[in-house]
Design brief:
Structural class: alpha/beta
CATH class: Alpha Beta
Order of helices and strands: EHEHEHHHEEHHEEEEEE
Largest sheet: 5 strands, mixed
Strand content: 15-25%
CATH topology: Purple Acid Phosphatase, chain A, domain 2
Low-confidence stretches: none
CATH superfamily: Metallo-dependent phosphatases
Helix content: 25-40%
Number of domains: 1
Number of helices: 7
Shape: globular
Number of strands: 11
Mean pLDDT: 91
Strand order of the largest sheet: 4-5-8-10-9
Distance between the termini: 7 Å
Radius of gyration: 17 Å
């Protein structure tokens, strides 16, 4: 069983799921090599908003990353499960398009101001804005592939059994699963760096055989956490665009329920 568009995996050799990109051009290799291997592609969200002080040597460019993702999604080659940075970018440009002024209502911190500058100074800025609003607005909050759920930040068992909500509809209706998928579970406090304290007790409620692949929370390496009932979380954000590197996982079509 999977929740991908009809025919998405037809005649594919497998599927590559890519962790948080944050503007890193490392994604070009991940995309191009997947295409060479005839693989479908999944993005776990947070394509944009690299760190201004990234010293990894990467040639970061959020507008470029968006351009590639939009093309792949439009062509039926890729899907994206939006992240919190995707949500903020969507809200900003949606407000701009509606004439409400994004700057007055959304803080352009954590790399967003740089992303906005890169988009607005691009020769194809109008097409980029239209493309990202369409791509994120129509994206599923999560995807199921076989016994895996792919979601940006957090999951519940119901995601293995329910059809995923569309981002644009869920954000308007304030869907209860929207916050879990986009932001994960927090306890209301903040860390020393000013970020919300993220909780992962929900791994212990995952049913045996269920695996959730997430980004959102930067780790030094791809990390697997086993839950009390036999479920597990795989963390796939290893700091691309923020001083780390890009990570991805490859699956067969059979593993993805194709």
């Amino acid at each position: 069983m999977n929740t991908f568009p009809k025919g998405f995996l037809d005649n594919r050799a497998g599927m590559r799921w890519i962790g948080d990109v944050h503007g890193s051009r490392e994604v070009d290799y991940a995309i191009d090599s997947a295409i060479m291997e005839n693989m479908a592609i999944g993005f776990l969200g947070d394509l944009t908003d690299q760190a201004a002080d990234d010293d990894s040597g990467s040639d970061n460019d959020s507008a470029h990353v968006l351009r590639r993702a939009i093309e792949l999604v439009r062509s039926g080659r890729a899907v994206i499960t939006p992240g919190n940075h995707c949500a903020k970018l969507y809200r900003y440009f949606n407000l701009v398009r509606e004439g409400q002024g994004g700057e007055s209502k959304i803080k352009t911190s954590h790399g967003l101001s740089q992303t906005i500058d890169e988009i607005m100074t691009s020769a194809d800025s109008d097409q980029l804005i239209t493309g990202l609003l369409d791509m994120i607005g129509n994206a599923s909050l999560w995807h199921r592939g076989g016994d895996h759920v792919f979601v940006h930040a957090g999951a519940v068992n119901g995601m293995f059994y329910e059809q995923p909500r569309r981002f644009g509809e869920a954000i308007r209706k304030k869907d209860g699963l929207f916050h879990r998928a986009i932001y994960g579970q927090t306890d209301g406090t903040k860390t020393a760096t000013g970020h919300p304290t993220r909780l992962y007790e929900w791994v212990d409620r995952l049913e045996a055989g269920h695996t959730v692949v997430i980004g959102h929370d930067r780790r030094k390496e791809v990390l697997t956490i086993d839950g009390a009932q036999g479920g597990k979380i795989i963390h796939l954000d290893t700091g691309a665009g923020k001083g780390g590197r890009l990570s991805w996982l490859d699956y067969s079509v059979e593993q993805m329920g194709g």
